[in-house]
Amino acid sequence: MKKSSTGLLLGSALVVGLSGCASSASQTSGQGSTQSADRAWYQHPAVCGLAGGLIGGGIGYATSSSSDEDAGVAIGGTAGATIGGLLCADNEPEPEVEECPSFPGDIPAGVAKDAEGCPLDSDGDGVPDFRDECPGTPSGVEVNANGCPLDSDGDGVPDFKDQCPNTPAGEEVNALGCPDSVVLRDVNFEFDSARLTSQAESILDEVAERLVANDGVRVSIEGHTDAVGSAQYNMDLSQRRAESVMTYLESEGVAANRMRAQGFGEEQPIASNETDAGRAENRRVELDEWTN
User: Fold this and answer.
1) What is the pLDDT of residue 40?
2) Is this prediction's pTM over 0.85?
3) At 140, phi and psi to the nearest 5?
4) Which residues contact 39 (CB under 8 A, 6 or more apart)?
5) Strand 219-224, strand 259-263: pairing
6) Opening angle at CA 72, ends 66 and 77, nearest 5
7) Closest Cα partner for 153 from 134, 136, 173, 139?
8) How far apart are CA 88 and CA 162, in angstroms?
9) Could you give the count of Cα atoms lying within 13 Å of 165 in the half-sphere of its Cβ?
């Protein structure tokens, strides 16, 4: 058989054989990406490339002259391998990766996103910036669906700043969230001294936390005693106790220039000094807004 006839036969075989492989591969691919791994062995690009290389080399040999057979085989083999691999390649497009699957609903166009494709949440409160009506919420503060700090009693002072978080509905409050001065319940002292008890310090920790958050407010710390002892002694004791509370709050981060300490002694009782229960009520420390 002449070389030209051999080249024609091999070329026809290349076209028919590889076209069949490519067609089968394309059909398999079109049935879904999950079936790509299940294609027949002869549809694999490497097998098609090998077959194409052999056939291409044969064509190169058959169509070359006696003097350049080696070059014809090399060129034909390379071209055939390339064509075979390309024909049987899986050209199915990569499946689209879902954008931010943890975010419910569609993300509006133009919304700023983080590295994972999710809408930015600059203050980390769980509400993305494009929905957040109160940006810049301090870390750890509980917020509502609009990204604003909770205000459980609806008095206009958010819970994390509110010294009186259970104010009755409709009652007017000051910047501390209280209708009036608030008695710091259980802020007690050791007997006949200005030294705070450990229980008192624990309560003042929460007071300080809210005052630090409510940094635009100044406060008056007011000490009171019962009527046991001389009036002057009680005045001095109440002053020292008020200053002790102020010192502790300062140690917890409340700026000193936002506070004043004032002792009233036995001058402003809220109960009778004739009973133990009444005297216990009169021994107290109050917190009020300092406005003048």
Assistant:
1) 67
2) no
3) 90, -10
4) 24, 25, 28, 29, 90
5) parallel
6) 145
7) 173
8) 71
9) 11
Structure tokens at 29: 């691919």
For residue 243, what are its two tokens? Answer: 């200053």
End-to-end CA gap in the chain: 116
* Cα–Cα distance measured from residue 7 to residue 13, given in angstroms and rounded to the nearest whole number: 10
Across the strands, what pairs with 189? 196
Give 251: exposed, middle or buried? Use CB within 10 Å, 0-12, 13-18, 19+.
Answer: exposed
The residues pairing with 262 across neighbouring beta strands, listed in sequence order, are 222
Paired tokens of 221: 């710390």
pLDDT of residue 103: 82
Strand partners, 149: 143
- CA–CA separation, 275 and 205 (whole Å): 31
* pLDDT interval class at 262 (50, 70, 90): very high
Domains and CATH numbers, the chain: 3-32+39-87 (no CATH), 182-289 (3.30.1330.60)
- Here the tokens at position 236 are 């001095």
Confidence of residue 16 (pLDDT cuts 50, 70, 90): very low
Mean pLDDT, range 150-178, rounded to an integer: 95
Q: The tokens 């002072």 sit on which residue?
A: 157
- φ, ψ of residue 242 in degrees (nearest 5): -60, -40
Instruction: Dig out the tokens for 94 from the structure.
Output: 């990569």
